[in-house]
Description:
Layout: E1 7-12, H1 16-26, E2 31-36, H2 39-46, E3 53-57, H3 65-75, E4 80-85, H4 90-98, E5 103-106, H5 111-138, E6 141-142, E7 145-146, H6 150-162, E8 169-172, H7 179-189, E9 197-201, H8 207-215, H9 232-235, E10 240-244, H10 251-263, E11 265-266, E12 275-276, E13 280-285, H11 289-294, H12 300-306, E14 309-312, H13 322-338, E15 344-345, H14 347-355, H15 361-375, E16 380-381, H16 390-401, H17 404-416, H18 430-444, H19 449-456, H20 460-475
Parallel strand pairs: 1-2, 1-3, 3-4, 4-5, 8-13, 8-14, 9-10, 10-13, 15-16
Antiparallel strand pairs: 6-7, 11-12
Amino acid sequence: xxxxxxxxxxxxxxxxxxxxxxxxxxxxxxxxxxxxxxxxxxxxxxxxxxxxxxxxxxxxxxxxxxxxxxxxxxxxxxxxxxxxxxxxxxxxxxxxxxxxxxxxxxxxxxxxxxxxxxxxxxxxxxxxxxxxxxxxxxxxxxxxxxxxxxxxxxxxxxxxxxxxxxxxxxxxxxxxxxxxxxxxxxxxxxxxxxxxxxxxxxxxxxxxxxxxxxxxxxxxxxxxxxxxxxxxxxxxxxxxxxxxxxxxxxxxxxxxxxxxxxxxxxxxxxxxxxxxxxxxxxxxxxxxxxxxxxxxxxxxxxxxxxxxxxxxxxxxxxxxxxxxxxxxxxxxxxxxxxxxxxxxxxxxxxxxxxxxxxxxxxxxxxxxxxxxxxxxxxxxxxxxxxxxxxxxxxxxxxxxxxxxxxxxxxxxxxxxxxxxxxxxxxxxxxxxxxxxxxxxxxxxxxxxxxxxxxxxxxxxxxxxxxxxxxxxxxxx
Length: 476
């Protein structure tokens, strides 16, 4: 067996004596062991030939080993991490597992213990790879999700892995990426699937009513409380409570929610009695929750309670050809609802959909297709049926490339050749395309951000945040 065919183990250990001892323990195994003594070298190896297993010390001279673990998780590297440290604690182990570590070895450990852990890890990884390959090959969707991109398969596997747990899940992603769909999939795959799934949109309910909506109230608890209300917590008993747009929740109510999660009991507004509850909490936000914590708008302790298992949904523009799969599915669905004869999209139309950046994500795609199907008739959706802003792609391409046929030619060439010659002036960065589109809609509504946001299928806060980011792009 050549060196390149051997399974690679990356050993990240700054103590030379410990590194030599570990290498001695593993020397008879068919492994290629690569040793580094600092974090930066470890990151360099990870960005090159990806190891099957990382043996990671947490106390390194240039960085915390947890930072390397976070990097592996963020990059979604298909590698297994075993933590090795002399400073083990329950909290450290829990944090490492939450960040994706597969096992935790506290120094000193025996050679047999290390060998067993590494062998089990590689065996589990091999079986997982086989199962994932078979699953990915046979499905183009998952529950009510549609899409076969690699990023969505990662999401599907995460949902399957976490469904059986009671741990809290925090789903992040831009508006329109399917966060409630994700929460429902977790619930439907869980042992709680026969029990209620209750969804609350924290941005849609007035602040003064939110506490009553979640915890319930007694009759007469406040002005207008003419009858008793059970509340979402009690309604979701033994099931799942989905708190959408959680970052919109008032700080005072965040404190009460934290206590409910910690104590597993709820107290109705106006009552002096507490009731035990058994509810799994899944929350979601289109904001950066850590940024909200740093800005003082979200409680740090609640963030860590909710973010036991994080799931990030990718925007549609990063999902390879999923936009075409989704569009085909939506055309059939909407045509049935509207009693129209559309059966699909013309190839030219699909090419244009693939070129657009979709700032409103799946919701924007659905709304545009609904608009087209309601206002037109035919078998296939053709390019001339496309409304703003998709028609600007046609117009811009016609001016610079002499017709829509060249838009398609360019796309085929990009896929089929290593290099392609395109005039620099014909290409805009994605943020600029998105900016032009959003500003066009905002201008249409004379600067009314909430109306523009409703049309785009995003929240007003998303547009404000993007406006701030554009300032940074333009200054570069």
